[in-house]
Design brief:
Blueprint lengths: L7 H6 L4 E4 L1 H15 L5 E6 L6 H9 L3 E4 L2 H9 L7 E3 L6 H10 L3 E4 L2 H13 L4 E8 L21 E2 L3 H11 L3 E7 L9 H19 L6 E3 L19 H11 L7 E4 L3 H4 L3 E12 L4 E5 L8 H5 L5 E3 L7 E7 L8 E9 L6 E4 L21 E3 L1
Parallel strand pairs: 1-17, 2-3, 2-10, 3-4, 4-5, 5-6, 6-7, 6-8, 8-9, 9-10, 12-14
Antiparallel strand pairs: 1-11, 11-12, 11-16, 13-16, 14-15
Helix pairs in contact: 2-9, 5-6, 8-9
This protein binds ligand LLP.
Length: 384
């Protein structure tokens, strides 16, 4: 069975479970992001910190010149500590607390992605108290179906994100006329995550083009932020370690209409970090049921919740013994929940107690979503 590249001598010495981030894969991905986004003279990629906030990962992202897309005061702090310049940080989220807005203003971030007129009013007041100006983009809900998992789609009109298309003019006019402490920089969009069909991004471009024309009847929009959402191939971390960044940026280049001095912004999370990360775990027991056999490992849904929460697939590799004959297993964790299953009926190289398994493509929304349920230790990580 083909596996990723793992330094077994180092991994085997460490207590499991933990996340392993492959520096080379991340470096190659960041290189590709920079090459492919250079199609525009004015473009900025903001890495979505929510996908993975391990300091070593953030530092490499800072070194590659990316900005950050943050959804909390904590993420802004982590991004700045990693060396990402405040003027490359955008701050999104449906419910920013007052302290978070104040902190972002103090740090001098580039822009707030604002989700409602009520939020515009609060930011305006807080900026006035601080004798400063807040720069914002209005987040518009484009009502586009991202054809992805229901729990990770955000751009349909029934969900809580953004300002409705029908309220666009009212929202823009309100900022321009009534909010003296706010500078309206442009518009923001995001329709969902794990999108692999470029037609979805094409549809978003068409919508954005129309919305920008409407908004610019009132005031110029200097910045267009198209959000993130590019998916990865969970089935093939070895064959496609780098996602289709070429196709993604080419789609925007072809379909998004930009005026000469406009700047386009992207907020990619998963596509940048998913394939560089694996959850490393040890087999504790192999248990034979009547018709099935279970490989019971020391990592559980507390370490990687995506399979339990979204029914997400992650490839599992026996990296101690990759060439053993294959058998079929349910690979499960130790948590007292029946949903604590990584994968069912899965064919992989025969496992025995003590073998080390790599649960692949876990760099995004893995470690950051870990919990201490059952009073377990957090997994921690190693960058190799
Ligand atoms: N921008 C905004 C406004 C977002 O809400 C998100 C993700 C992103 C950018 C980055 O999206 P990405 O490029 O990573 O698709 N926990 C889920 C994913 C939740 C995504 C939330 N928003 C999962 O494990 O699949």
């Amino acid at each position: 069975m083909m596996t990723g590249n793992f330094p077994m001598d180092i991994l085997a010495k460490r207590e499991t479970p933990f996340y392993y981030y492959d520096r080379q894969v991340l470096e190659d991905t960041l290189w590709e992001v920079n090459i492919q986004s250079a199609r525009w003279s004015k473009a900025q990629v903001h890495y979505a910190v929510k996908a993975c906030a391990a300091p070593e990962v953030l530092q490499m992202i800072a070194d590659a010149g990316l900005g950050a897309d943050c959804v909390s005061g904590g993420e802004i702090k982590a991004a700045i500590e990693a060396g990402i310049a405040a003027d490359k940080i955008v701050f999104a989220g449906v419910a920013k607390a007052d302290w978070e807005i104040e902190y972002a203003l103090e740090q001098g971030i580039f822009c707030f992605n604002v989700e409602s007129q009520a939020e515009v009013e609060v930011i305006d007041q807080l900026a006035e108290h601080m004798h400063t100006k807040a720069h914002i983009c209005l987040r518009i809900n484009p009502n586009i179906d991202a054809h992805t998992h229901a729990k990770i789609t955000t751009g349909m009109k029934e969900n809580k994100f953004g300002i409705q298309l029908c309220d666009l003019e009212e929202a823009v006019e309100d900022v321009v006329k009534n909010r003296p402490n706010i500078v309206l920089e442009g518009l923001h969009f995001h329709i969902g995550s794990q999108i692999t069909d470029m037609k979805v991004f094409e549809a978003l471009c068409k919508c954005i083009n129309e919305v920008v024309v409407r908004a610019e009847r009132i005031v110029p929009m200097h910045h267009i932020n198209v959000g993130g959402g590019l998916g990865i191939l969970y089935e093939h971390p070895n064959h496609f370690p780098i996602p289709d960044l070429a196709g993604y940026f080419a789609t925007y280049k072809e379909h998004l209409v930009m005026r000469e001095n406009q700047c386009v912004h992207f907020e990619l999370g998963r596509a940048i970090v998913a394939q560089c990360g694996s959850l490393i775990t040890r087999v504790l027991y192999v248990k034979h049921g009547v018709e099935k056999q279970f490989a019971i490992v020391d990592a559980g849904m507390t370490d990687l919740i995506r399979p339990a929460l979204y029914g997400a697939f992650h490839r599992v590799e026996n990296i101690s013994n990759p060439n053993a004959d294959e058998q079929t297993y349910d690979i499960v964790g130790p948590i007292c929940e029946s949903s604590d299953v990584f994968v069912e009926g899965y064919k992989c190289a025969t496992v025995k107690r003590g073998d080390i398994l790599a649960i692949r493509s876990a760099g995004a929304y893995g470690e950051v979503m870990a919990s201490q349920y059952n009073l377990r230790r957090l997994p921690g990580h190693l960058m190799g």
